[in-house]
Amino acid sequence: MASHSESIIREPLITGKNITYAQITNDVLRPVENMPGKAWWIGFSVASLGACLWVFAVSYTFWYGIGSWGLNKTVGWAWDITGFVWWVGIGHAGTLISAILLLFRQNWRNSINRSAEAMTIFAVICAATYVVSHMGRPWLAYWPLPLPNQFGSIWVNFNSPLVWDVFAISTYFSVSLVFWYTGLLPDLATIRDRATGIRRKIYSVLSFGWTGSVKTWQRFETVCLILAGISTPLVLSVHTIVSMDFATSLEPGWHTTIFPPYFVAGAIFSGFAMVQTLLLVTRKVLGLENYITMFHIEAMNKIILLTGSIVGVAYLTEFFIAYYSGGEYEQYTFLNRFIGPYWWAGCMMYGCNVLMTQLMWFKKIRTNIPISWVLSIVVNIGMWFERFVIIVTSLHRDFIPSSWVMFYPTWVDVSVFVGSIGLFFTMFLLFIRVLPSIAMAEVKLILKSSSEQAKKKLIDGGHLEPEQVEYYKESLTSFDSVDITDYQKR
Amino acid sequence: MDSNKKYWKGLEELNKTPEFVELNKHEFAEPIPIEEVLTGGGLEGKSPRRDFLKALGFGVGAVTLAACQKVPVHKSIPYLIKPEEVTPGIPNYYTSTYEGQAILVKTREGRPIKIEGHPNDIIAKGGASAQAQASVLDLYDVNRLKNPLKNGSDSGWAQVDDFVVRELLNIKASGKKIRIVSLTVSSPSTLGVIADFIKQFPAAKHINYDAVSYTGIIQANQNSFGKAVLPHYNFDKADIIVSFGADFLGTWISPEEFTRQYVSNRNNKSLESKKMSRHIQFESGMSLTGSNADVRIPVKPSEEGLALVALYNAISGSTLAGTKAIGNKVAENAITIAAKELVAAKGKALVVAGSNDVATQVLVNAINSLLGSYGTTIDLDNPSLQYAGNDAEFAELVSDMKSGQVDAVFFLNANPAYDYYSSKDFTDGLKKVGLRVSFASNADETSALCNIVAPNHHYLESWGDDNALSGYYTVLQPTINPVYDTRQAEQSLMKWSDIPAKDYYTYVRNNWDKNLLAKGGLSGQSGWETLLQTGFVKAAPVTAGSYTFSKDLNAVAQTIIDHSNLLAGDKTELQLYQTVAIRDGKRANNPWLQELPDPVSKVTWDNFAAMSPSDMKKKGLQDGDVVKIDANGYSIALPVLSQPGQAQGTISVAVGYGRTVVGPVGINVGKNAFPFHSLRNGTLQTSATATLTPTGENSPLAQTQTHHSIEGRNSIIKEASFTEYLKNPATGTGKGEGHKEYDKPDLFWQKYDRPAYDWVMAIDLNACTGCGACVVACSAENNVPVVGKDEVRRRREMHWIRIDRYYSFNDNGDGGVTREHEIAKLEDLDHVKVVYQPMLCQHCEHAPCETVCPVLATVHSSEGLNHMAYNRCVGTRYCANNCPYKVRRFNWFNYWNDSRFDNYLNNEHTQLVLNPDVTTRFRGVMEKCSMCIQRIQAGKLKAKIEKRPLKDGDIKMACQQTCSANAIVFGNVNDPESEVSKALKSERTYYVLEELNVKPGVGYQTKIRNISEQEA
Are B874 and A141 an interchain contact pair (Cβ–Cβ within 8 Å)? Predict the structure, then answer.
């Protein structure tokens, strides 16, 4: 894109000294073009064991019935829909990064959008499996689709948020897939050009005959922008509709108008946490520190802080409205989150999501990789508990006290959830082996303008304000991929 | 015109090249590779011919084999010659008798599928107990004995008859005693057969043996008035009822009858005429009756007698010798108040006691005599014949057996090896008896010890009659051919004693022709036929005389006080009771009853030690902690349950559990508490002192309700005191209290016409006693699955109707502490008020379940019902989550075809009990109350066929029909004259969770308690 120089006070998006286009390709494609290392094999073995557990637990459920879960007459949804919403939420970061940040020309997204989008797809797959497996008669899972049929005049219930959900999730999945794949095309072509034999054939099919001509690039950019435009409302709509699964009901604790924005913020919050969890490991293992830099980590932490705070405000609003509405059931439901038998789940939710993320106000914490990673996991745990609290803690004590119950998960509940994590990581680990985990073409776009070496050249040129240079150098101190002594020599 | 034109096909042909000429010599211009194909070249190709054939062969073979799997064959044979009276799809109803009560048996295609109360039955007036409802399932019990047994192995009737007759003749010759032990027999014909048998064998004697005995009352009446009878009580004539441990609404003598009577002074009709009876209950464990009382005072068993003495003193104004203080301030105050009220209501008062102690009952007689109850609320001249057991006679039999004087004993519906308090004495004695015959239709503890088991018919296979109340003769007629090779017990006795009648049917006929038909003004064949249609005859009652007690009471009082001293002390006092569902344990193999939650504790599939919450706290026990209970030299380990209202220092344990020889359903469910009884002064005592030792184990109880307080939610339960009600009948409903009117035009909901019918229901909380008969009736009508203890523990019972039970606690007299955290702070959890609320699908006009179903599986009908289309349901369970009443039930498993649910319908034979009008539900679909849609359709169809409009009352819900209290009214609200329209117009009517604007179709009427302000 722009070949003009970027302001020196901006932190570099690519670090390293002799980064060339070829270097980028080599770095990014290292895992794709070489045999996997030990770490990958260990990770893959664990993940695929998890995936096998998932297959077993889901098959067990299909064979014996939903009764193998811990649900009961009062709590009709628990780990299933908790898992579903959790996964859908996680998916949101990918779309936000790929679509909204693209529209806002946030170039730093270029290094992370590929993995984030892949994560979106896999998370939505995990979520969709829950949609089917939580049904009493999963073999009829196609009935909520408005398909012409021979059953007579049977149609779906367009009033039901579950039908909206079917549309929301399927649209989301297909648009995300197309967007992700379109973005992959130039990178696939790069792999194709470097590959031989059968790999070359496969990648040449996958790259849809990319030629790299100017016209192709121009069309590519246009398509990306259009798809970004289509995806942008999805970032807001999908979780809005998921939240309506709850908000349109009568259930105290669900029947809340704040749910759509609150769920969207929560989704982005958990999504960024998951991106953080994945990329902090990936950049280390795959040696991509120069492309996913401290700037990215800190930027994502800031988003986590922002969305976490929005979620916190939503929590407070819920409590206020429960108090202000005077609705005795709603008041009880919210009190019950703290003083009821599931108080510990409520504490996990509020503690992990609100209290812990407030630590991100400190730059030291934002730029500390181990703490960031731990906090990202904490957020993921907290967001799982948020859904658990909303679903189970609301349901288990609603209107009629005679029907109040406790919910105890069975081994099948746990296995389906743990297994879905295994499934997710299996897909993710396969992804980083066969596809470039960083959008090479897009990173190359910013090499000339926003890389450390470009900035260094500017400094060496010596036409800059010294304060600004000092500021720049100062900001580099937190970068783990920058050798700060290079700057101190001068 | 001919043509020489010759068309050529190619230049080769035109030019006649040599190659072309050469090739054209053959039939095919190019050689066909036949040789190549046949000689192996073809076999080396990419898809060789042989491989193709192999694959084809294998494929066809595999498909054929796969198709060979046996498809289940369901034999359904149409009626080739249709019986005149059977039309497939149309039920036939027959009159019959269940335990002395006239009933109707609904049969479909020749099989009885449902018991319904007889509308003219004088006992329950159309109501039927949970036991009666469940009895039909016993008919299809696959564990019934299928043929006679001799020495424990299968035998035939001829061999059995030979053996018994030979033995009997030997015994007759030897002159040893013969005994027939039975549950109280009130059937005139059975008594006739037994009498004839005794004529044949003069050494024989008939002993009525009731596991739960009323000897105390019978003996007391003998002592007091010279009439050894169980009186007939008229609770409907009593303005004030004071009961000392008599659970007359749940298990005592004739609970359905008493419920009907009791409620007639408390239901909406009575309230509208500004009348409500008052009921004070003194008892140890919380019984169904106690939970319905206006005032309930927990007393220890040792205090019960003292309280009666105090009551006598207060009423008579004298002091009996040896009188001592109860030592329970609350009870003393209550006695003073009760005495005042009783005296004020002289002639309209009734005092009853559940004790089986003769002295206690004599004192009760004295009190009732002072109150002028005889001839009004108590009728000694038209007595109840339901129980005639004599504890002393049976004890004598045991000692006779032990001393070897008895050489033959017959057991008819009696199972003393299980339910006699000293079963060891009994079994030791039985070993010395030569001929031991049991008529048990299911193997039981006693039949296991008998050398002959001559299985009786199920009552639905039998002829017979009954006479539960004097003057009330009911007939028993079979509704199905005997399913197994069984024989009616009376027939066996006749066979063995050479009674000269062709069969028992003839015997019954003769008996009726000679003695009974005339009592109802009937005679001859036509009289008999009328009887079979009407079900009973009722002789004109004798005028009830008034009796005055004139015996000396000082000795009686001394006995009572001695008994009290025996129990009082530091030890825990143990009280034995029957549960409403299982009663004496005879029906332990009935899964409907086992899964029917106990009305008070809501426990299923178990008995337990009920203990007061403060005692639990003191002992550091939690619900479900198993304790060893030692009393009267017997011990069992049972889980404890915190029971608010249980008298401190006492535990209550239900009998009827712990069967060891019974079918797979009832075996080892709970522990046997019968051996805790003791024999004192000739009667069995139901209390004892016990020591408790925690075992450290925990066995969670399967309760259908685990949260017991209403949390101050007065839009669910609305109640008021009778005084408040008199001032303003709408008290407590929230009407006219400035609440928002919810009947505004709706923004989101379209209003639909209900052109013909709008089905609704009204439930009177003041009539419902909470007994749970409706739950079993609903299960029977609607094929509701039984899920078993483990699944109930997981809170997955399937009942379409449930009875919610809430406690509220008194706090320094201000009453109504209902919030969990406030209850936790209370010191006094003894004084507790209970309310029952039947809860079923409310058929909301704005049904929240309907809007959320993605596939429209649950929709509204034009008759105001919320339908459930099982076939369309995909099982997302959103409807259940969104139901504020939590009445929807999900089929977590395939209860019909899953070996883990063997305790119910997992076999083809038992499935014959299913109502063919109601589909069974597959795994993964939601179900709920349908308002007996099949009954509505049948009713409408019947009216249409008869070319008349549907009348109010033509259609009755299964729950409504069985309710002895008539607490449930169903009907068409479009008809302003219908009973339900009138009921809903009552000032007391409110709708549960009205403020949600779901517009429920079920209206409730407030609970009214007859309590004075200071008690409130």
Answer: yes
